[in-house]
Amino acid sequence: MSPPLLTILTATHNVAAVLPRLLDSLAAQSCRDFEVVIQDGASTDATLPLAESYAARLPALSRESSPDTGIYDAWNKALSRARGEWILFLGADDRLAGPEVLAQAKERLARLAPEVMFAAGAMEMELPDGGVKQTFFPQVTDIRSRLLQGMPVPHTALFHRRSLFDSNRFDAGFRIAGDYEFLCRTWRDDRLGEALDIVVTRMARGGLSTRPQDALRVRLEEAKAASTHFPRAWLTPRRIKSLAGGAAIT
Q1: What is the DSSP letter of 73?
Q2: Global model pTM greater than 0.85
Q3: 20 to 30 A from 47, CA-CA: which of 14, 26, 62, 103?
């Protein structure tokens, strides 16, 4: 059997209450040229039986469960099973924006030059009632400068070419901003990325990077990543003064 074009990869842990949101949106896709790879962190609820119940509705479903140290450790484990040319990382409570998303993505990905490693769509932040609070559009030009300011693309709407992971993995030492650190490390040239003119994902509020209680940790981890990979550009006089005074880095 030939490998699929797309891998949808998700990490789970006791998410039976929200996982149908993701799996229903995948089962509804008109494009069937994809696989679903689930890496579970030893759930004790009905997450795994629930995922298994979708096997007949999905073109390919791979499931493994073992303890992990966090989402990036789980993603790294799952990457060894990913066969698609392009990989999209989704949260268990994310969902694709509509049944034609993967068909639209497939058509656009086919046009990209071989050197393009990242293909970025837009993401909608969803309200509890299903409405859209805000749409986040990717910024893929002048990427080095944009990365210095923070995350320039919604990661949950970003397709990664699988060959990126032949020699790279996520840094599992990060708890929240490991995806940002990965981009700082690997997306060093504008030619590596393209924007897709489609909304890919609808993200529910409450993910790790959006919870108010995690805001400080996000900023600290982003500062660590940026200062590591762009030390001369990131350590501006203003930031040095801010660090010396103990103020928050902005």
Answers
A1: H
A2: yes
A3: 103
